[in-house]
Specification:
alpha/beta, eight-stranded parallel beta barrel, 15 helices
């Protein structure tokens, strides 16, 4: 027989003799536990009332074990800020594992009982899994090279050749590919449980923050993936969504938080309307104490129990907004996350903008946090496509964006440098399309940003024109060079190294098809390009000067134009930039004609030249050909990396 339990810890916890259940609901008048004999049963085998203690409701069920399936039901006021509905089965906000086998979103949004088609949580015993000594790797951020990928999209294509395509297990099979490429961390698009029936391929509408998405595999399969990545020396960073939930706006389904504490978990206007700073219909009120607790507990759980190495926070500026939407100087969840001992070695990365108009790149209030540097993306895109007068801005980005971070005593690693990410064009499409082509998304091509700072190199979309194709490959390599010789932390979008295309779609959030899936046949077809990326990544690892943890001083770097020490800072027509940093000399000629660049004194060897055909475009370590004379002729729209002869012997990479 059930008996009163304990209010803490929150969630379903296996303890001696049974399972303790606890859930928050400040304004509920009654809360019931629904226990199902089997996950697929339409009705609960037991309905057990919970006991109230402060704002937490709890019960202890003797004899119950891990694997039990359950949900909640809550009664209380409706109207005003409240949204209680005792006919709705509610998912535990702290559920560690979720089954969506019976799930019907329409039933959860419509009036009436939806228990028969509800989401179910499963009781989990963390002690039952053998981690075999695994822990987060804690690699220095300066030595990190991030590879952003979507779990399903990475291996869903039949061309992937994995046994379980589109899953955690499928990704695990591709670890040798990641190791060979040389990246040090994977950043996974959201893996929290989300509602895939709502057309959400990307996963940015979470419904259970503590549970891995069941469409990608079981909790054990996620833990197996983490353990395998760590054994291979690869870190795992999760793209997390705490700015909104999958319950949507007015008229959306009652899944969990809405039915337990709408007034606590969501930002509301004085008229009790849902505020929307996220573009999804609701905004998670992360600075309400109970919501702050949920977010912090969740982060600690993924680190302590599931061993992840870091987090990237989607629309991170939402975390800085107060109850009225205004920006706070010291937002609680941002401060507690960066200062907590439990997360002291965890990587924290903010997307420092949101759909409500905030753009805080360089001024995000978390001082230990890194940021996706949208300024790097935009300046580098414009420079490589050939826009003039940008050499000063590009030099600042290459040097770590000191204008954004040094004022706050933040290091270059505050800048997560990227040219492409999941949100926008792939790198292939950036050099193949002038305009977005999002018709397949069903919104009349109105969705997605209109200004992509792209250039199609002469024709829109795919082409058989040999000259245009060669220029596109060169432009891709140019972007790769700028990205990987820059101070800060480079991030590569999965598949860019083999010209993955979305056929001009810059917002395929609902495309669970070959638009979003990586075609592994392209890996074979573009092996020379993949080799270029691989050697460039290796070059970065072997040259510590490219990954400093302090900003460059006046005596650390020399900036040049075509002539030494003569950069065109004030030349509004200039499209060229070069620099010398320790044993590395980089030339970037984005002009449409070949130009001669003066070289510093010494003996130089050619590591990379994007104007040359493969395999001459990239030299294996120790085989770099010598460069004669005091000048180097750089091809039109090309990038060149030279290395001093004294440093040509291979150095052990990090």
């Amino acid at each position: 027989m059930a008996e009163p339990g304990r209010a803490h810890p929150v969630g379903a916890c296996v303890v001696e003799g049974g399972v303790n259940f606890s859930v928050f609901s400040e304004n509920a008048t009654a809360v019931e536990l629904l226990l199902f004999a089997r996950p697929g049963d339409p009705a609960p085998a037991q309905v057990i009332p919970l006991v109230r203690d402060f704002h937490f409701w709890h019960v202890f069920v003797p004899g119950l074990e891990a694997g039990a399936t359950y949900a909640y039901r809550a009664d209380g006021p409706s109207g005003g800020p409240f949204a209680f509905d005792r006919e709705k089965a509610l998912l535990d906000p702290y559920a560690r594992s979720v089954s969506s086998a019976l799930w019907d979103r329409k039933a959860a949004a419509a009036p009436g009982d939806d228990v028969a088609t509800s989401l179910r949580a499963t009781v989990v015993d963390p002690a039952a899994y053998d981690w075999e000594g695994d822990r987060p790797l804690e690699r220095p951020l300066a030595d990190t090279i991030v590879y952003e990928l979507h779990v399903r999209g990475f291996t869903r294509s039949p061309t992937s050749g994995v046994a379980k395509p589109g899953t955690f297990a499928g990704l695990q099979e591709k670890i040798p590919y990641l190791l060979d490429l040389g990246v040090t961390a994977v950043e996974l698009l959201p893996v929290f449980q989300f509602d895939a029936t709502d057309g959400d391929f990307w996963g940015y509408n979470p419904i259970a923050h503590f549970a891995p998405h069941d469409g990608y595999g079981s909790l054990d399969e996620f833990r197996d993936l983490v353990k395998a990545l760590h054994r291979a020396g690869l870190e795992i960073i999760l793209d997390v969504v705490f700015n909104h939930t999958g319950e949507g706006g007015k008229g959306g389904p009652t899944i969990s938080l809405r039915g337990l504490g709408n007034e606590a978990y969501y930002m509301l206007s004085p008229q009790n309307e849902l505020l929307d700073f996220t573009g999804t219909g609701n905004t998670f009120d992360v600075n309400d104490p109970i919501a702050t607790k949920l977010v912090f507990d969740c982060l600690c759980y993924w680190v302590d129990e599931l061993h992840v190495d870091g987090f990237r926070f989607d629309e991170g500026t939402v975390l800085t907004r107060g109850p009225d939407g205004a920006v706070m100087q010291y937002p609680p969840i941002v401060s507690v996350t960066e200062l907590a001992d439990q997360l002291g070695e965890t990587k924290l990365i903010a997307e420092a903008w949101d759909a409500g108009g905030l753009y805080d790149v360089g001024s995000f209030p978390g001082r230990r946090w890194s940021e996706w540097n949208g300024r790097f993306r935009d300046d580098v895109r414009r420079f490589v496509r050939g826009d003039p007068g940008l050499v000063g801005a590009v030099a600042t980005r290459i040097a770590g964006s000191s204008d954004l971070y040094q004022w706050a005593r933040r290091p270059p690693q505050s800048s997560i440098n990227f040219v492409t990410c999941h949100d926008g064009f792939t790198l292939n499409d950036l050099v193949s399309y002038d305009a977005k082509h999002n018709e397949a998304n069903g919104e009349g091509n109105r969705d997605g940003i209109d200004e992509n700072l792209s250039w199609n190199c002469g024709t829109e979309g795919e082409t058989d024109d040999v000259a245009i194709e060669e220029l596109r490959r060169r432009q891709i390599r140019n972007f790769a060079v700028v990205l990987l010789v820059s101070q800060g932390v480079p991030m590569i979008l999965a598949g860019d190294e083999v010209r993955r295309t979305q056929r001009g779609n810059n917002n395929p959030w609902n495309q669970d098809d070959d638009v979003s899936w990586l075609d592994w046949d392209r890996a074979a077809a573009n092996e020379p390009l993949r080799r270029f990326w691989k050697l460039l990544i290796d070059f970065r690892k072997r040259h510590p000067a490219l990954r400093r943890d302090t900003f460059l001083g006046a005596g650390d770097v020399r900036w040049h134009g075509c002539l030494l020490d003569s950069p065109g800072w004030y030349d509004q027509s200039s499209r060229v930039l070069a620099f010398t940093l320790d044993d590395v000399h980089v030339i970037m000629n984005m002009d449409d004609q070949e130009l001669d660049f003066e070289l510093p004194a010494g003996e130089w060897r050619r590591a990379f030249d994007t104007s040359l055909a493969a395999p001459d475009d990239a030299s294996d370590p120790g085989t770099e050909p010598a460069v004669g004379g005091g000048f180097y002729r750089a091809g039109a729209r090309s990038a060149v990396v030279l290395v001093s002869s004294i440093a040509t012997s291979p150095v052990q990479p990090v």
